[in-house]
């Protein structure tokens, strides 16, 4: 589901990049959509971690892990593959954590390709204006 959400929002970014708006507005809007996508996916995984922990599939090693922000924090650290190590999963949540890290790697790679294409388009349009 996370990959589908990200691919859908990237397709919307591509449509936005071909809109008649000024290029800087298109790039800014697309960047905000990409950021929204990453945050939404982290929130999806955070909800999954919470649900799985409540179902008894595992937990987290931390003094207190009850606030939604704790789950969202862990999800952001994990999806970016940063992995600080201050919170770590136990039980079957370790598998979900691995899937989230792989998903994060894929969506960050897709985002990097999109950003590269947007920059190249800007450079091409700047070169045409100077000619």
Describe the structure.
This protein has 131 residues and is mainly alpha-helical. Helix content is 75%, strand content 6%. The chain has 4 helices and 2 strands. The longest helix has 38 residues, at 93-130.
| Largest sheet geometry | 2 strands, antiparallel
Major sheet: arrangement of strands: 1-2
Order of helices and strands: HHEHEH
Quaternary state of the chains: single chain
Task: Just give the CATH class.
Answer: Mainly Alpha
Helicity level, as a percent range? over 70%
Low-confidence segments: none
Structural class: mainly alpha
Q: Output the number of helix runs.
A: 4
Number of domains: 1
Number of strands: 2
The whole-number mean of residue pLDDT values reads 84
Shape: elongated
Instruction: From the 3D structure, determine the CATH topology.
Output: Helix Hairpins
What is the strand content?
5-15%
Distance between the termini: 45 Å
CATH architecture: Orthogonal Bundle
Rg, rounded, reads 18 Å
Protein name: Ion channel
Domain Potassium channel: 43-119
Keywords: Membrane, Transmembrane, Transmembrane helix
Transmembrane segments: 27-50, 71-89, 95-116
Give the topology.
Layout: H1 2-17, H2 23-54, E1 58-61, H3 68-79, E2 88-91, H4 93-130
Antiparallel strand pairs: 1-2
Question: What attributes does this structure have?
Answer:
Helix Hairpins, two-stranded antiparallel sheet, 4 helices, 6% strand, 2 strands, mainly alpha, 131 residues
